[in-house]
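Sample pair:
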Amino acid sequence: MKKVEDLKVKIFADGADKAGMLDMYQKTFIKGLTTNPTLMRKAGITDYRAFCKDILTFIKDKPLSFEVFSDDFNEMERQALEIASWGDNVYVKIPITNTRQETCYALVEKLANQKVKLNVTAIMTLDQVRNVVAALDPNTPSYVSVFAGRIADTGNDPVPLMTSALGLLKSAPAAELIWASPRELLNIFQADEIGCHVITVTNDILKKLPLIGYDLKEYSLDTVKMFYTDAVAAGFKL
């Protein structure tokens, strides 16, 4: 099994906890960071602009994605241009549709033509990938973020779709494919095996990295000890 340092896929830390983000930023195997409004709300963030600008005072040399949060495309554009102005390492996350399922392709094309670095997010179909790639500027760095983990949640294997998506990205050489919303450590190796460019990983999954290559007999014993210790601590009797 490969070691983390031998992986070709770039690991991006996904979160909104400042301490956690800065801790991940310090790790050499973390090549970028992402966040979204849901993670920010869970972290108790109330001032969007202040949080983002604060993080950017610490993280200036790795890509960092912040998402627009309007449901109106004109307002999305305004937010996107402001967010993009915060730093050269900033990528603007644009959802694939608004809540009325109106597609973002025209907005993506408009922003791409202004050389805004984009991260088009919440993608789950190849048609969406194809249309996004067609809207991107082929020479402006961007990310196409396919939610492979959510695809897997529906009982569908995301690997064939992600492999096909890589083929579609060949017409946009500056764009990179993100394997988003992974559910387990194995997904990092699956993404690496197919040649996916980036995988976004939450801290909960990143904490499992020391388990890579761990002896399964020892892991089995650890599990048995856990069950025994918890039974004793609970004072169970029959």
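The chain is about 45% helix and 15% strand.
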